[in-house]
Write a structure and sequence with these properties.
With 240 residues, this protein is an alpha+beta fold. It is built from six helices and eleven strands. An eleven-stranded antiparallel β-sheet has the order 6-5-4-3-2-1-11-10-9-8-7.
């Protein structure tokens, strides 16, 4: 009888510990490393960029709670002459309504988009690693015939969110990488805080707000005849 009673209390304690160890809100600071030689593959652009500018680093922040998240570039007063080389998207995700509001950047133009959350199919693996002090499990997503995304998520951080528009895993994604290593996000710091609701509420914008279908049609019309344009559109919508 005592053995059964002790076993019951041990199981109850373990379950309670797991429940209270789940972190429902916080802030993640990411470093994004982009290999510009893999992004701009023609030799003329590579020669113009030079080896010193091969890798570009951008800093982003993700604020989350149990209902929503906001992914944004970190504010800075410093001017970067290479800003044109990488996009700095802003993504708000609402887990309850399954909606997202995105402000995508294209050559300095801010393009607001309202649509449903993008659902991706993930394949779990047994691989794991520690990122920013958290144990993370690896999952793989096949975007198309040529693109795979690797993600490392921390189940201890309860929200199903991550960099850019990524979601769908049982925990916050702390590491994200394209298969060729051309773009890599890794969390540098995780802070257990309660974000101000204004921080994760979609920003107010002026002008036209697109659906993804509308913006894709516009971009196909403007850039879809060239191979580089087709590749850009595919990456713009299918990946990020």
């Amino acid at each position: 009888m005592n053995f059964r009673k002790n076993t019951f209390f041990i199981l109850l304690f373990t379950l309670t510990l797991n429940i209270f160890s789940q972190i429902k809100s916080g802030k993640v600071t990411y470093e994004r490393r982009t290999n510009l030689f893999k992004k701009f593959k023609d030799s003329d652009t590579k020669d113009w960029l030079g080896e010193a500018n091969k890798n570009k680093i951008d800093i982003f922040e993700l604020f989350f709670n149990d209902t929503a998240s906001a992914f944004k570039p970190q504010e800075s007063e410093l001017r970067d002459r290479m800003d044109w080389a990488t996009a700095k998207n802003i993504v708000y995700q609402n887990f309850n309504s399954r909606r997202k509001f995105t402000i995508k950047s294209l050559w300095g133009e801010a393009l607001p988009i309202k649509d449903t959350l993008l659902i991706r199919k993930w394949k779990m693996t047994d691989a794991s690693r520690k990122i920013a002090g958290y144990n993370c499990r690896k999952a793989v997503c096949k975007i198309n015939d040529t693109t795979r995304i690797y993600a490392w998520f921390a189940q201890e951080l309860e929200a199903s969110t991550g960099p850019e528009s990524f979601n769908g895993l049982p925990g916050v994604i702390l590491g994200l990488a394209t298969e060729d290593g051309g773009v890599v996000y890794f969390a540098k710091k995780v802070e257990v805080i309660k974000p101000d609701l204004a921080t994760i509420a979609p920003a107010k914008t002026k002008g036209k707000i697109y659906t993804e279908k509308e913006l894709r049609a516009r971009m196909v019309k403007e850039y879809g005849k060239e191979k580089w344009g087709k590749d850009m559109i595919k990456s713009f919508f299918d990946v990020w």
